[in-house]
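Hi V.,

You were right to ask for the full record rather than a summary. Here it is.
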Amino acid sequence: MPDLTKDPDFFALLAGSYQRLIGRPLLPEGADARWAYEQAPFALLAHDTDADPRFVYANRTAQESFGYALDEMIGMPSRLSAEAPDRAERDRLLAAVARDGYVAGYSGIRIAKSGRRFPIVDVVVWQLIDEAGVTHGQAATYRLPKD
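Predicted structure:
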């Protein structure tokens, strides 16, 4: 899989689809693909349109929360981010995103590589739709709750 971490076209898809669907910018003014990947204080993930979607992007905050290196996360089925009992809830969320374009305000539990369970809050999941209306997958941003 290609490295999308600093790809300007992929970044334009992430940020542009978020702006069009949610109606506000994904990142602070002046932030770019490098900042989103290296410094964003929130997780940012994306998966493709396969029948069993696979991660194509995960910023450093997402990698740290899941405990995977980038090369371990990219290509991994995104369903593995939730434990089996929580996958039905995750599937319902992704179906709502496909139907409505995005879902905001979601909270849930995810599982790290180590087996550690962790909460995600203020989740926004949206369709990665380019300006021509072609869907390239779905993306999500979330933060970890403050202790």
